[in-house]
Structures are given as structure tokens and as C-alpha cells.
Amino acid sequence: MATKKETKVKLHVKKGDQVKVLAGDDKGKTGKVLKVFPAENRALVEGVNVVTKHRKPSAQNTSGKIEKMEASVHLSNLMVVIGGAPTRIGRKLNEEGKLQRVAKRTGDFIK
What we know:
With 111 residues, the chain is an all-beta fold. It has a domain at 18-55 and 64-86: SH3 type barrels, CATH 2.30.30. It has strands spanning 18-21, 30-37, 42-45, 50-55, 65-70, 73-74, 78-82, 85-86, 89-93, 99-103. β1 (18-21) and β2 form a beta hairpin.
């Protein structure tokens, strides 16, 4: 069985970024990126796409429970927010000659 060739892809969203949701039930909401899943092109955003999970009783949790948790959102539905406004992301060489993310709206480098 052939395995999927994994390539290192540079994404416009990183962990810790403030993002705005562009489409879906949570359109217009903003939140902080908790985790990015590059293989699936998805990200976990704080307070966005909250789903209800039913947990069965187990040895540790004898009564079971219903918990709310965030589900992942596709990266195409997210836009990075810089200075309170959503912006597109590009890449430019910085002073040290390394590619760094840059905000298209302001032209400033992003950490």
C-alpha cells in the first residue's frame, strides 16, 4: 500500500494568531488559533465551531457527561487579523534573508 507523500507546506495561519471566520455558522467571529493540522488543512480556533460530545461512562468517569468542545475549521474559511482588521498574508525576505509572513494590508512583517 502506497503512503501519502507528505510535503512541508507553508500556511497563512499559525498557532497563536488572531483569526476571523469568513464562512459557515460562525461567520464573523474572531478567535485565537489553538492548533493547526497541516495535513488536513484545518485549524482549531478558540470559541468557534463548538460541538457537543456525549461521553459514555467509564472507570474514571462513572456517570458519563455531555461536553462542549471546539471542532476544526478549514483554513480557507479563516483570515488573519492584524491591528483589528483582517488581512491577506504574503511572504517577503526580511533583513536576514529569510522568508517571513507579511500583512498585505499594512506591509508589516508578522512575528
